[in-house]
Amino acid sequence: MPVADIAQVRAALRRDVRADRRAFAGMLVLNALAALVALVGPAYLGRIVDAVTGPHPSVSAVDRDALVIVVFALAQIILSRWALLVGARFGERTSARIRERMVERALALPAFVVEHATTGDLVSRGTSDAGMVAATLRDAAPIVFVSAVQVLLIAGAVLVLNPLLGICALACLAGDVFVLRWYLRRSRPAFLEQSVAGAAITDVLESTASGARTVEALGLQRRRIEAAETAFAASIKAQMRSLRLRLVLFPTVDASYVLPLAGILLIGGALYRQGGIPLGSVVASAVYMRQLIGPLDTILLWVQTLQNAAVSYARVEGLAAAPQAPAPTREVPRGDRVEAADVRFAYTAEHGDVLRGVNLVVQPGERLAIVGASGAGKSTLGRLLAGIDRPSQGSVTVGGVPIADLPPERLRRQVVLVTQEHHVFNDTLRGNLTLAKPTATDDEVLAALAAVDAGWIDALPEGLDTTVAGNGHRLDGAQAQQVALARVVLADPHTVILDEATALLDPATARKAEQALAAVLEGRTVIAIAHRLQTAHDADRVAVMDAGSVTELGTHEELVALGGIYASLWRSWHGD
User: Fold this and answer.
1) What span, in angstroms and rounded, lies between the C-alpha atoms of 303 and 136?
2) Rounded to whole angstroms, how far apart are CA atoms 487 and 440?
3) How many CA atoms, within 13 angstroms, populate the side-chain half-sphere of residue 332?
4) Closest CA to 520 of 457, 453, 475
5) Distance of alpha carbon 509 from alpha carbon 456, whole angstroms
6) For residues 565 and 395, is the Cβ–Cβ distance under 8 A?
């Protein structure tokens, strides 16, 4: 999956700031006022020192200046807290927009992009990366901005108070600028490498957990452990690279904090002894520089978080550069005839074509079975016929319109693909089923469940209102598959593509579900991709695939009489 460059991240950040410009402006003003108010204390402290050490000490003057310091300290607290509140609200709203944009972009990605991206990559972008950006905008960004404003104003105050002392102090901090630039140039690639390594760990753990039964059955434990160790080693290497950068930055910065204060005290003390500067100015300058250490330290402590957030922002914004599906067509299909013409398809250029010159016409109301050995391209053809993938060459149309170009709402009414892979959302049973038809009544939902022989609904504690995932009632594989089939009934499409749709049901239940669907789908086009040749026997025609091509096409009786691949499969099915 692509990653946005620095220019794209800055452009996205500018858009997010403009979207809530009033809150951002308020944060700027309040932070500036808080920083300005904070400058009053050291200046009046210098006046107190001069008043005490002067020829005519005045208690009333000291009390008056001390009261001013207290008042402005309280004002600084109020303004700072107010600024943090406004900044936090700005951060929350902005992070919400980023999360929503992330979800919208992920949902808009073509299916082939999502399926060929690693699970860990997408999951980490939507969770840890989006969370990092949100937390930074909510917490780090206001704090760092406050500190940056304080640094600028304090540095300006020192220069105004005594230019010589100011120049001396700021010159001592010049080394920090060079070290920070050195760090920033190298840290972004390091943190990006760290994020990629973290995504790889997520992918290894998720794939191992989801395929635990396969790992156990095939004895792949050692191999999966080695894959996890490789991912962990890459992550440790990436983290050590960023750690080495911090080991240069932070000790250098810590050492440099002492130099400006020492320079002011040495040079200021010498000037005071010569009568060139009041003692209060030296004290005020020293206090200012002591104040400067706080915001500088805050910025440097948060710089790692900001770099991590910048990398996360780049990964989240990178979805905008992922391949996008063309805009849906407004053309309306002229009929329900499905046709594949000279179709070629490859998942990747390196692995070559999976489909090679497929030509197939499915008439409205026809029942077509697609059979073939594993890897022949049956499921791939089914995905193209359902509009999920686009052919590399040739065309796949319904009613003369490319299926993949249809808008989602029309595509669902035209073609529905049901596979052995299914998903039950953390929602009520009603919510899971009305995804296919939001306007469906309870009677329609119950009728759809009855059509697939899902009698287990009567045992649910709250009927259609029962939560069927998450912490609710868990459906087993057969029940979840029946939910998927009931969605087909509710969607009421013209064409249904069944890719091993009843594979997870036991034979008796599967046969009942197929019989129920046969009655419901009467008069509709049905394309069944099946390993059970009984399905092919009941179909109007059978298409046999071999090495990505349709090699035989005809009725069951015709293909058995032909004596080719299908006849061989049929004999094997019956044990001959």
Assistant:
1) 11
2) 11
3) 2
4) 453
5) 12
6) no
Pairwise CA distance, residues 119 & 91, whole Å: 28
User: Which structure tokens are listed for 185?
Assistant: 């140039």
Residues 6+ apart with CB under 8 A from 507: none
The angle that helices 221-256 and 258-273 make with each other, rounded to 10 degrees, is 0
From CA 543, how far away is CA 285, in angstroms rounded? 88
Q: Are 491 and 526 in contact (CB under 8 A)?
A: no
Taking CA atoms, 155 is separated from 37, 158, 264, in Å, by 14, 5, 13
Quick one: which H or E segment has residue 108? Answer: helix 59-108
Residue 67 main-chain phi, psi, to 5 deg = -65, -40
- DSSP-derived letter for residue 421 is -
27 alpha-carbon distance from chain centroid: 28
- Name the nearest CA neighbour of 69 among 86, 87, 51: 51
What DSSP assignment string belongs to 133-198? Answer: HHHIIIIIHHHHHHHHHHHHHHHHHHHHH-HHHHHHHHHHTHHHHHHHHHHHHHHHHHHHHHHHHH
Q: Judging by beta carbons within 10 Å of its beta carbon (0-12, 13-18, 19+), is residue 439 exposed, middle or buried?
A: exposed
Complete domains list, the chain, with CATH: 6-321 (1.20.1560.10), 338-573 (3.40.50.300)
Compute CA distances 413 → 224, 326, 487, whole Å. 42, 20, 12
Query: Cα separations (Å) of 244 from 78, 231, 256, 264, 455?
Result: 40, 20, 19, 33, 63
- Residue 414 amino acid letter: Q
- Six token digits for residue 73: 């300290």
Q: What span, in angstroms and rounded, lies between the C-alpha atoms of 327 and 310?
A: 31
What confidence score (pLDDT) does residue 530 get?
A: 74
Distance of CA 65 to the CA centre of its chain: 55
Residues of the chain with pLDDT under 70: 54, 57, 111-120, 138-139, 141-142, 257, 304, 323-326, 349, 470, 501-520, 531, 575-576
Q: Nearest Cα to 284, choosing from 35, 53, 45, 38?
A: 45
β-pairing, 541-546 vs 549-554, is antiparallel
Q: Is 244 exposed, middle or buried (0-12, 13-18, 19+ CB in 10 A)?
A: exposed
Tokens of 140: 């780090």
- Predicted confidence at residue 520, as pLDDT, reads 65
Tell me which amino acid residue 167 is. I
Phi-psi region of 564 (alpha: psi -120 to 50; beta: other; left: phi over 0): beta
Contact assessment for residue 105 and residue 320, using Cβ atoms and an 8 Å cutoff: yes
Of the candidates 92, 102, 121, which has an alpha carbon nearest to the alpha carbon of residue 12? 102
3-state SS, 38-79, equals HCHHHHHHHHHHHHHHCCCCCHHHHHHHHHHHHHHHHHHHHH
